[in-house]
Write a structure and sequence with these properties.
276 residues; alpha+beta; Deoxyribonuclease I, Chain A; six-stranded mixed beta sheet; globular; disordered N terminus
Protein backbone atom coordinates (compact mmCIF):
# COMPACT_ATOMS: atom_id res chain seq x y z
CA UNK A 1 0.00 0.00 0.00
CA UNK A 2 2.81 2.43 0.85
CA UNK A 3 4.42 1.81 -2.51
CA UNK A 4 1.15 2.53 -4.32
CA UNK A 5 0.57 5.79 -2.42
CA UNK A 6 4.15 6.88 -3.08
CA UNK A 7 3.84 6.15 -6.79
CA UNK A 8 0.65 8.16 -7.01
CA UNK A 9 2.24 11.03 -5.14
CA UNK A 10 5.31 11.34 -7.34
CA UNK A 11 3.30 11.04 -10.53
CA UNK A 12 0.89 13.85 -9.67
CA UNK A 13 3.13 16.74 -10.88
CA UNK A 14 3.65 14.98 -14.18
CA UNK A 15 -0.10 14.61 -14.59
CA UNK A 16 -0.67 18.28 -13.81
CA UNK A 17 2.09 19.34 -16.22
CA UNK A 18 0.61 17.21 -18.96
CA UNK A 19 -2.77 18.81 -18.44
CA UNK A 20 -1.30 22.30 -18.52
CA UNK A 21 0.60 21.79 -21.76
CA UNK A 22 -0.94 22.61 -25.12
CA UNK A 23 -0.09 22.01 -28.77
CA UNK A 24 0.43 24.74 -31.35
CA UNK A 25 0.87 24.16 -35.06
CA UNK A 26 1.64 26.23 -38.14
CA UNK A 27 0.64 24.98 -41.58
CA UNK A 28 0.87 26.41 -45.08
CA UNK A 29 -2.00 24.40 -46.56
CA UNK A 30 -1.33 25.46 -50.19
CA UNK A 31 -4.00 27.52 -51.94
CA UNK A 32 -6.56 25.71 -54.07
CA UNK A 33 -4.73 25.60 -57.41
CA UNK A 34 -6.46 23.37 -60.00
CA UNK A 35 -3.12 23.10 -61.78
CA UNK A 36 -1.75 20.94 -58.96
CA UNK A 37 -3.17 17.82 -60.64
CA UNK A 38 -3.01 14.82 -58.32
CA UNK A 39 -2.11 17.19 -55.47
CA UNK A 40 -5.04 19.54 -56.04
CA UNK A 41 -7.07 20.58 -53.00
CA UNK A 42 -10.13 18.33 -53.60
CA UNK A 43 -7.87 15.26 -53.61
CA UNK A 44 -6.00 16.08 -50.41
CA UNK A 45 -8.35 18.10 -48.25
CA UNK A 46 -9.83 15.14 -46.36
CA UNK A 47 -6.36 13.85 -45.48
CA UNK A 48 -5.23 17.30 -44.36
CA UNK A 49 -8.26 17.69 -42.09
CA UNK A 50 -7.70 14.20 -40.71
CA UNK A 51 -4.07 15.02 -40.05
CA UNK A 52 -5.11 18.03 -37.98
CA UNK A 53 -7.63 15.94 -36.05
CA UNK A 54 -5.08 13.25 -35.29
CA UNK A 55 -2.26 15.52 -34.11
CA UNK A 56 -4.75 17.55 -32.07
CA UNK A 57 -3.36 21.08 -31.93
CA UNK A 58 -5.07 23.41 -29.48
CA UNK A 59 -4.11 26.50 -31.46
CA UNK A 60 -3.06 26.46 -35.10
CA UNK A 61 -2.37 28.97 -37.85
CA UNK A 62 -2.72 28.34 -41.56
CA UNK A 63 -1.27 30.21 -44.49
CA UNK A 64 -2.49 30.47 -48.12
CA UNK A 65 -6.00 29.26 -47.33
CA UNK A 66 -8.78 30.72 -49.48
CA UNK A 67 -12.21 31.27 -47.96
CA UNK A 68 -13.76 28.06 -49.29
CA UNK A 69 -10.80 26.06 -47.96
CA UNK A 70 -11.27 27.57 -44.51
CA UNK A 71 -14.99 26.88 -44.65
CA UNK A 72 -14.22 23.24 -45.40
CA UNK A 73 -11.92 23.06 -42.37
CA UNK A 74 -14.57 24.80 -40.27
CA UNK A 75 -17.00 22.01 -41.12
CA UNK A 76 -14.46 19.24 -40.49
CA UNK A 77 -13.15 20.71 -37.23
CA UNK A 78 -16.18 22.16 -35.44
CA UNK A 79 -14.39 22.18 -32.09
CA UNK A 80 -12.35 25.17 -33.30
CA UNK A 81 -13.21 28.83 -33.79
CA UNK A 82 -11.45 30.90 -36.44
CA UNK A 83 -10.27 34.51 -36.79
CA UNK A 84 -8.71 36.31 -39.74
CA UNK A 85 -9.46 38.12 -42.99
CA UNK A 86 -8.47 37.86 -46.63
CA UNK A 87 -5.40 39.83 -47.58
CA UNK A 88 -6.84 41.31 -50.78
CA UNK A 89 -9.70 43.30 -49.23
CA UNK A 90 -9.54 42.86 -45.46
CA UNK A 91 -12.66 40.74 -45.65
CA UNK A 92 -13.13 37.56 -47.71
CA UNK A 93 -10.95 37.95 -50.81
CA UNK A 94 -7.51 36.45 -51.25
CA UNK A 95 -5.42 34.24 -49.04
CA UNK A 96 -5.88 34.17 -45.27
CA UNK A 97 -3.35 33.74 -42.48
CA UNK A 98 -6.13 32.51 -40.23
CA UNK A 99 -5.85 31.42 -36.61
CA UNK A 100 -7.86 28.59 -35.09
CA UNK A 101 -8.27 27.91 -31.37
CA UNK A 102 -9.95 25.09 -29.46
CA UNK A 103 -13.15 26.52 -28.01
CA UNK A 104 -13.25 24.18 -25.01
CA UNK A 105 -10.00 25.61 -23.65
CA UNK A 106 -9.42 29.07 -25.12
CA UNK A 107 -11.58 32.15 -25.18
CA UNK A 108 -11.07 35.05 -27.57
CA UNK A 109 -10.28 38.40 -25.98
CA UNK A 110 -9.19 40.33 -29.08
CA UNK A 111 -8.11 39.73 -32.66
CA UNK A 112 -7.10 41.59 -35.78
CA UNK A 113 -5.00 41.67 -38.92
CA UNK A 114 -2.37 44.10 -40.16
CA UNK A 115 -0.58 44.30 -43.48
CA UNK A 116 3.16 43.82 -43.81
CA UNK A 117 3.84 47.19 -45.36
CA UNK A 118 4.60 50.81 -44.62
CA UNK A 119 0.84 51.30 -44.05
CA UNK A 120 -0.08 48.27 -41.92
CA UNK A 121 -3.58 49.43 -41.02
CA UNK A 122 -4.80 49.43 -44.62
CA UNK A 123 -4.88 46.86 -47.42
CA UNK A 124 -1.47 47.32 -49.00
CA UNK A 125 1.68 45.78 -50.46
CA UNK A 126 4.94 46.67 -48.80
CA UNK A 127 8.50 47.45 -49.87
CA UNK A 128 9.66 45.12 -52.69
CA UNK A 129 7.02 42.44 -52.06
CA UNK A 130 5.36 40.75 -55.02
CA UNK A 131 2.04 40.38 -53.21
CA UNK A 132 0.11 41.81 -50.25
CA UNK A 133 1.12 40.03 -47.05
CA UNK A 134 -0.55 39.99 -43.65
CA UNK A 135 -0.23 39.00 -40.02
CA UNK A 136 -3.32 37.89 -38.08
CA UNK A 137 -3.24 37.93 -34.28
CA UNK A 138 -5.41 36.82 -31.39
CA UNK A 139 -5.30 37.44 -27.67
CA UNK A 140 -6.57 34.29 -26.00
CA UNK A 141 -7.55 33.32 -22.46
CA UNK A 142 -6.44 29.84 -21.42
CA UNK A 143 -9.25 28.67 -19.15
CA UNK A 144 -7.15 25.77 -17.83
CA UNK A 145 -4.04 27.73 -16.91
CA UNK A 146 -5.99 30.93 -16.14
CA UNK A 147 -3.50 32.91 -18.20
CA UNK A 148 -3.53 35.13 -21.29
CA UNK A 149 -1.70 34.46 -24.52
CA UNK A 150 -0.97 36.41 -27.70
CA UNK A 151 -0.63 34.43 -30.94
CA UNK A 152 0.59 35.96 -34.22
CA UNK A 153 0.37 34.08 -37.52
CA UNK A 154 1.99 35.37 -40.71
CA UNK A 155 3.22 34.65 -44.24
CA UNK A 156 6.19 36.62 -45.56
CA UNK A 157 6.68 37.46 -49.22
CA UNK A 158 8.46 34.93 -51.40
CA UNK A 159 10.26 37.51 -53.57
CA UNK A 160 11.11 40.67 -51.64
CA UNK A 161 14.20 40.41 -49.44
CA UNK A 162 13.63 43.89 -48.05
CA UNK A 163 9.98 43.02 -47.44
CA UNK A 164 10.92 39.95 -45.42
CA UNK A 165 13.41 41.88 -43.30
CA UNK A 166 11.02 44.78 -42.72
CA UNK A 167 8.13 42.40 -42.03
CA UNK A 168 10.10 40.78 -39.21
CA UNK A 169 10.87 44.18 -37.70
CA UNK A 170 7.26 45.35 -38.08
CA UNK A 171 5.82 42.29 -36.34
CA UNK A 172 8.23 42.61 -33.42
CA UNK A 173 7.27 46.28 -33.09
CA UNK A 174 3.57 45.42 -33.22
CA UNK A 175 4.02 42.78 -30.51
CA UNK A 176 5.74 45.32 -28.27
CA UNK A 177 3.07 47.92 -29.02
CA UNK A 178 0.09 45.64 -28.30
CA UNK A 179 1.44 43.48 -25.50
CA UNK A 180 1.67 46.21 -22.90
CA UNK A 181 0.86 43.76 -20.09
CA UNK A 182 3.84 41.58 -21.05
CA UNK A 183 1.78 38.44 -21.53
CA UNK A 184 3.06 35.28 -23.22
CA UNK A 185 3.54 35.43 -27.00
CA UNK A 186 3.74 32.89 -29.82
CA UNK A 187 4.72 33.86 -33.37
CA UNK A 188 4.25 31.31 -36.14
CA UNK A 189 4.09 31.13 -39.88
CA UNK A 190 5.69 30.65 -43.26
CA UNK A 191 8.52 33.18 -43.32
CA UNK A 192 9.95 32.19 -46.72
CA UNK A 193 13.23 32.56 -44.87
CA UNK A 194 15.91 30.07 -43.92
CA UNK A 195 17.68 30.14 -40.54
CA UNK A 196 20.87 31.77 -41.85
CA UNK A 197 18.97 34.80 -43.21
CA UNK A 198 18.38 38.19 -41.59
CA UNK A 199 14.63 37.91 -40.78
CA UNK A 200 15.24 34.75 -38.74
CA UNK A 201 18.12 36.44 -36.92
CA UNK A 202 15.96 39.45 -36.05
CA UNK A 203 13.15 37.35 -34.61
CA UNK A 204 15.39 34.88 -32.80
CA UNK A 205 17.05 37.74 -30.92
CA UNK A 206 13.67 38.59 -29.39
CA UNK A 207 12.04 35.14 -29.19
CA UNK A 208 13.02 31.48 -28.97
CA UNK A 209 12.95 29.25 -32.03
CA UNK A 210 10.88 26.25 -30.89
CA UNK A 211 13.16 23.81 -32.68
CA UNK A 212 16.18 25.05 -30.75
CA UNK A 213 14.32 25.57 -27.47
CA UNK A 214 12.72 22.11 -27.35
CA UNK A 215 13.55 20.17 -24.18
CA UNK A 216 13.49 16.93 -26.18
CA UNK A 217 15.26 16.33 -29.52
CA UNK A 218 13.37 17.67 -32.56
CA UNK A 219 11.46 15.02 -34.50
CA UNK A 220 10.98 14.71 -38.25
CA UNK A 221 12.70 16.14 -41.33
CA UNK A 222 15.08 19.08 -41.06
CA UNK A 223 13.08 21.07 -43.61
CA UNK A 224 9.45 22.08 -44.00
CA UNK A 225 8.95 22.82 -47.73
CA UNK A 226 8.42 19.69 -49.79
CA UNK A 227 7.04 21.16 -53.05
CA UNK A 228 4.91 18.01 -53.41
CA UNK A 229 8.17 16.20 -54.32
CA UNK A 230 7.55 13.04 -52.37
CA UNK A 231 10.72 11.20 -53.41
CA UNK A 232 13.16 13.95 -52.45
CA UNK A 233 14.56 14.84 -49.02
CA UNK A 234 12.84 17.79 -47.30
CA UNK A 235 15.69 20.12 -46.35
CA UNK A 236 14.47 23.69 -46.84
CA UNK A 237 13.24 25.07 -43.52
CA UNK A 238 10.99 28.12 -43.90
CA UNK A 239 8.09 27.47 -41.47
CA UNK A 240 8.51 28.31 -37.80
CA UNK A 241 7.08 28.53 -34.31
CA UNK A 242 8.67 31.08 -31.97
CA UNK A 243 7.85 31.55 -28.28
CA UNK A 244 8.85 34.08 -25.67
CA UNK A 245 10.53 33.27 -22.36
CA UNK A 246 7.24 32.85 -20.50
CA UNK A 247 6.69 29.56 -22.31
CA UNK A 248 8.59 26.25 -22.32
CA UNK A 249 8.84 24.09 -25.45
CA UNK A 250 8.51 20.46 -24.40
CA UNK A 251 8.54 18.92 -27.88
CA UNK A 252 9.00 20.01 -31.49
CA UNK A 253 8.17 18.10 -34.66
CA UNK A 254 7.93 18.54 -38.41
CA UNK A 255 5.12 16.22 -39.49
CA UNK A 256 5.80 14.29 -42.70
CA UNK A 257 2.55 12.30 -42.87
CA UNK A 258 1.69 11.05 -46.35
CA UNK A 259 -0.91 8.97 -48.15
CA UNK A 260 -0.26 6.93 -51.30
CA UNK A 261 3.03 8.79 -51.87
CA UNK A 262 1.39 12.22 -51.64
CA UNK A 263 1.68 14.90 -48.98
CA UNK A 264 -1.42 16.80 -47.83
CA UNK A 265 0.31 20.10 -48.74
CA UNK A 266 3.49 21.39 -50.35
CA UNK A 267 4.63 22.37 -46.85
CA UNK A 268 4.95 20.12 -43.81
CA UNK A 269 3.24 21.38 -40.66
CA UNK A 270 5.32 22.31 -37.62
CA UNK A 271 4.00 21.20 -34.23
CA UNK A 272 5.25 22.36 -30.83
CA UNK A 273 4.07 21.11 -27.45
CA UNK A 274 4.25 24.05 -25.06
CA UNK A 275 3.93 24.50 -21.32
CA UNK A 276 3.43 27.57 -19.21
Amino acid sequence: MRRLIFALYISLPAILNAQGAFNVLTYNIRYDNPGDGDDAWPKRRDFLAGQLRFHAPDVFGIQEGLLHQLQYLDGELPEFARVGVGRDDGDEKGEFSALYYRKSRFGLMASGTFWLSETPDTVSKGWDAALPRICTFARLYDSLAKKKLWVFNTHFDHVGKTARRESAALILNKIAEMNIAHEAVILMGDLNTEPEETPFALISKAMQDAQQASETPPFGPAGTFNGFRFNEPVTRRIDYVFVDNKLIVLQYAVLSDSRDCHYPSDHLPVLARIEW
